[in-house]
Write a structure and sequence with these properties.
Layout lengths: L2 H8 L11 H11 L6 E5 L5 H10 L2 E6 L2 H14 L4 E6 L2 H6 L5 E7 L8 H9 L2 E14 L5 H7 L9 H6 L7 E7 L2 H21 L6 H22 E9 L2
Parallel strand pairs: 1-2, 1-4, 2-3, 4-5
Antiparallel strand pairs: 5-7, 6-7
Length: 248
């Protein structure tokens, strides 16, 4: 099954494509206090929810970048439906290649839940620091270990122990690049349950509505495995936070 189609299907019921409730997203965005016309870029923008809410709140001009053709189409449709006059552009491109072409252009840069693009949390902060104006803001979202992961969990999930770090390490990683941590939003177990549960719900709804789709067996098989891993180990081992940094 095409991986981008898989991710599109399991996120059909989500507003935010990460373990953050929309109310907390609004709370985060109320803190950035951008001026009208501020420039923003969101790497791995998904459905453009972050960009749209920034445009609605601050009249920013912005760019969203995503490699998924499904997410790109959804982002463009959402912008057209909700804020057609906003100065927002969606680019279908690898995030790492996109950022390599830019430097120091944006008042706010973000990459939420996609540090794999740059090879981890620290490398993500390093890459985004090159994009932000002096005194600008960086938003990243990253999992962290609540406790030492069991070997069975790592084997079943395919996650490596060094893929993630602790909340403390995530929060202090910006020091290496002169960044100041100004806030963190840590998800609750309920936030995680909603994010994961909506994936199960979306997969089931798709299977019921499309019983003859050839991708349904693989879809349900993968979701069932991920559900088991989450309930047996992940919920008590891994958590998630949004980190807000200010550049020097």
């Amino acid at each position: 099954m095409d991986k981008w189609r898989f991710y599109d299907i399991i996120h059909q019921k989500h507003v935010c494509y990460n373990p953050m409730l929309p109310a907390n997203l609004d709370r985060l965005l109320s803190m950035v206090e951008l001026k009208p016309g501020s420039s923003v870029v969101d790497i791995a923008c998904g459905n453009a929810e972050l960009l749209i809410r920034l445009a609605e709140a601050y009249e920013v001009k912005g760019m969203g970048v995503d490699v998924s053709p499904y997410f790109v189409a959804k982002a463009r449709s959402a912008i057209e439906a909700r804020c057609p006059s906003a100065d927002l552009q969606i680019v279908e491109q690898e995030g790492k290649a996109f950022t390599a072409e830019l430097a120091g252009r944006f008042d706010l840069v973000s990459c939420i839940g996609a540090s794999w693009i740059f090879g981890g949390h620290s490398n993500t902060l390093k890459a985004l620091t090159k994009l932000v104006e002096p005194g600008g803001l960086i938003i990243v979202g990253e999992p962290f270990w609540i406790k030492e992961p069991a070997d069975d969990y790592l084997e079943a999930s395919g996650i490596k122990r060094n893929d993630f770090s602790t909340h403390y390490d995530n929060a202090t990683a910006g020091k290496a690049f002169g960044l100041t941590l100004v806030y963190t939003f840590v998800s609750t177990p309920n936030d995680w349950d909603m994010y994961e549960g909506l994936q199960w719900f979306a997969a089931d709804a798709f299977a019921v509505a499309n019983p003859d789709d050839p991708d349904v067996p693989k879809l349900l098989e993968r979701v069932a495995k991920e559900k088991e891993v989450y309930l047996k180990w992940g919920r008590d081992t891994l958590n998630w936070a949004i980190y807000l940094f200010r550049a020097p």
